[in-house]
Amino acid sequence: MQIKDLAAVVTGGGSGLGAATAAQLATLGAKVAVVDINRDAADSHARAIGGTAIACDVADAASAEAAFAAARAAHGPVRILVNCAGIGTAGRIVGRDGPLKLDSFERVVRVNLIGSFNMLRLAAAEMAEQDPLEEGERGVIVNTASIAAYEGQIGQAAYAASKGGVVSLTLPAARELARVGVRVVTIAPGLFQTPMVDGLPPDIQASLGAGIPYPSRLGRPAEFADLVAHIVHNRFLNGEVIRLDGAFRMPPR
User: Fold this and answer.
1) SS3 call for 211
2) Residue spans per domain, the chain
3) pLDDT digits (tens, 9 = 90+) for 67-99
4) CB within 8 A of 95, min separation 6: which ones?
5) Which family does the UniProt entry place this protein in (predicted)?
6) pTM of the model
7) Of these residues, 159, 192, 224, 248, which one is catalytic?
8) Is cis: bond before 252, omega within 30 of 0?
9) Does 159 participate in catalysis according to the annotation?
10) How far apart are CA 220 and CA 224, in angstroms?
11) Rounded to the nearest 5 degrees, what angle is found at the Cα of 194, between the Cα atoms of 31 and 113?
């Protein structure tokens, strides 16, 4: 799919991987809706890339529906959805204060998994109504999982479970949506230079990067964005989860 002039929605687009992706798509000529629960972050980044800012809680049905309506009014029907919104609250299943609070587990799953599905279902319905492009393609959906889906560490039960759900969602969604020409691909990033990592001391950041086989550094958000652009371009990529991690495998802790 050619990106130029297409309408794109990027969740979590106000910072980190989402911000880099929104910028890359805008550079390639897409009309980008920067969707983020943080309205100020969305506004700032949308202004920087010439996009449209939309505040949205991806895990809320009404909020997501309103976000797609706003994006559609600004840019036309969505052809590209990139789900980058997510949270990563840590917590042991049984800690010093007893079992992990159920609402803590539920919140992570709700944002990362249910939020991704919520946006996917609405985007897919909108894409299915559009005229087909080359080879019958109508749209592309890129989800964000994590290598924690495969090697979740101690304290990552909620995060790993939520991202594992995103991985498992990929193939059945791609199979179902194939009939309307909508592709679904997931990226499972490793350790990246995101706001979460930026808050760590420099020596800890260096140590994390040194543990990656090659290149021995943290991933750059632009590298994630480059892969998103390739997925959109390459029509034969479908129903797949792509690890983007420099051959890193996470240890138990």
Assistant:
1) coil
2) 7-192+223-242
3) 999 999 999 999 999 999 999 889 999 999 999
4) none
5) Belongs to the short-chain dehydrogenases/reductases (SDR) family.
6) 0.96
7) 159
8) no
9) yes
10) 7
11) 70
